[in-house]
Design brief:
Helix content is 21%, strand content 33%.
Length: 362
Amino acid sequence: MVRVIPMASSIRPSLSSFRFSSTSRLGLSLSPSHAPPRRLAFSHLGSVVSQSQSFGMRASRALRGESNVTAASTPGNMAQASTTATQENVLDWVKQDKRRLLHVVYRVGDLDRTIKFYTECLGMKLLRKRDIPEEKYTNAFLGYGPEDSHFVIELTYNYGVDKYDIGTGFGHFGIAVDDIAKTVELIKAKGGKVTREPGPVKGGSTVIAFIEDPDGYKFELLERGPTPEPLCQVMLRVGDLDRSISFYEKAFGMELLRTRDNPEYKYTIAMMGYGPEDKNAVLELTYNYGVTEYDKGNAYAQIAIGTDDVYKTAEAIKLCGGKITREPGPLPGINTKITACLDPDGWKSVFVDNIDFLKELE
């Protein structure tokens, strides 16, 4: 059963809470179960999409003519044809929209400890940091290049909260490295936890290893040649892979890059993204045979995606059966336009206006 975590004043991660002060950017807030509830302006952020919803567009049927009057000439059918044309226009626009993964947001219990681990062991750079004392949280942005051209991590530390529940739905982050053995030895020397030693992936030839950061988030290290996007994967578990693929293709405009079925270990994965895996960050969806629901905990927040038009984006998401949790429009106090939604499994995503995002970085 997917668990919905109540909102609280003590927990406020950034590009998801949608609570803002004059100095704050974007943020989402999920509280641990012991925290007191607090009303937020946007009350449906914790909503979960019903498993019974349909995630896909049905093709329109060909219109048949009878006598001298065609079916399309009747008022009802003309309205249906118009609606179908509108849907096609919106979904065609999604494919042309300039989208890319901006950052992934999650919560940590000790910001300085996590920054030290990511910079010393994983080779990331601290890009910027901001403290919002009136809202009692601090953000840190880390990655392998500037935010205007790279997929980065946005960490959130909520004052006084030192532990979160990662749940069973979140999988791991992926990082491409040139020398996986050297990276693993460095992580061990710094006191990091290695949960899988370097070696070929089961059923393949790619050399991988698994580690855990101080908060228990898993990272898959993949040995790969030089790449413009070392922070290369976010893996999430889903309950119906075909449904999720259809949704991300149509509503998000992602491309299905590849699938891999592993019947021996009873799982199937699908790589979704806005470009090839060796040059872009991708979303790795994992379906475990027979498992339809997961506990999402309160640690992982969401992915942020850039778009040229948040209004059309929200329309496409609705047409595909998605759940809009924040209607498109500018945020209070600043002019950045966003919209937020849930996918079929209840995973959250925020779409951010491309031009507004660049203005914020200035």
